[in-house]
Amino acid sequence: MSTCPQHIVDYMHEYLDGDISRDHEQQLKKHLNNCSSCRQHMHELSDTVAFVISAAHITAPPHFESEVMKRLPKGKNRVGIQNWFRRHPILVAACVFLLFMSASLVGSYQNNEFSVTKQPNLIVDGQTVIVPEGEVVKGDIVVKNGDIIIEGEVDGNVTVINGQYMASTAVVTGEIEEIDEIFEWLWYELKSIGNNFIGLIQ
Predict the structure, then answer these.
(1) CB 113 within 8 A of CB 119
(2) Are 136 and 119 in contact (CB under 8 A)?
(3) pTM for the complete prediction?
(4) Per residue in 50-74, pLDDT tens?
(5) Among 1, 90, 91, 163, which residue's Cβ finds the most Cβ atoms within 10 Å?
């Protein structure tokens, strides 16, 4: 059969579907008379079609579906969670947002690169930021992965992340905050985002 032309197999299917033309039927019969392997294949196809037709009349016993459904494991908890998600879409969206934002903030916390906010009158020496004596820096200073020495005056907040704040006769009009823990960093970032958001809507 493997050496027989493909169109003979197509004619077999046409014959079994009842869609074969007179010419194709004659070619098929002629081939089947000469090829025992195609004759065997045609016989197997006919048996399969006959089985499918006879099986179409089989019906399930009464209450079969309900009995099967009773035996299936209950998916109540999953359905309950899905319903809760559907009833609280804003809360779910807020939780997903906070999760992704926290992941990105943790990633930025673990970045060990030194950085400092750009302010005039600051001296940067390696990873140490210095406010020289007699100088006034107007605005907030944020130093990450470095230290700050204040000998002059800062008219704003000073935040040191993963570093040290050192001052002797310094004058800082705002808050001084040292952040060494990841939770303090997350809280600081969330406050900054909140303040920026409030600044935008005012």
Answers:
(1) no
(2) no
(3) 0.40
(4) 877 776 666 777 787 788 888 777 6
(5) 163
**In terms of C-beta distances under 8 Å and separation of at least 24 residues, what long-range contacts does 87-90 make, across chains too?**
none
- d(Cα 75, Cα 100) in Å, to the nearest integer? 29
Q: Residue holding tokens 């040191």?
A: 160
- Tell me which amino acid residue 71 is: R
Nearest to 160 by CA among 174, 173, 177: 177
Which one has a higher pLDDT value, 161 or 77?
Answer: 161
SS (H, E, C) the chain: CCCCCHHHHHHHHHHHHCCCCHHHHHHHHHHHHHCHHHHHHHHHHHHHHHHHHHHCCCCCCCCHHHHHHHHCCCCHHHHHHHHHHHHCHHHHHHHHHHHHHHHHHHHHHCCCCCEECCCCCCEEECCEEEECCCCEEECCEEEECCEEEECCEEECCEEEECCCEEECCCEECCCEEEECCHHHHHHHHHHHHHHHHHHHHC
Asked if 8 and 31 count as a contact pair (C-beta separation under 8 A), the reply is yes
Confidence bin at 190 (pLDDT 50/70/90): low
pLDDT in tens, 1-56: 667 888 888 888 888 888 889 998 899 899 889 888 888 988 888 888 887 777 66
Residue 134, both tokens: 């007699």
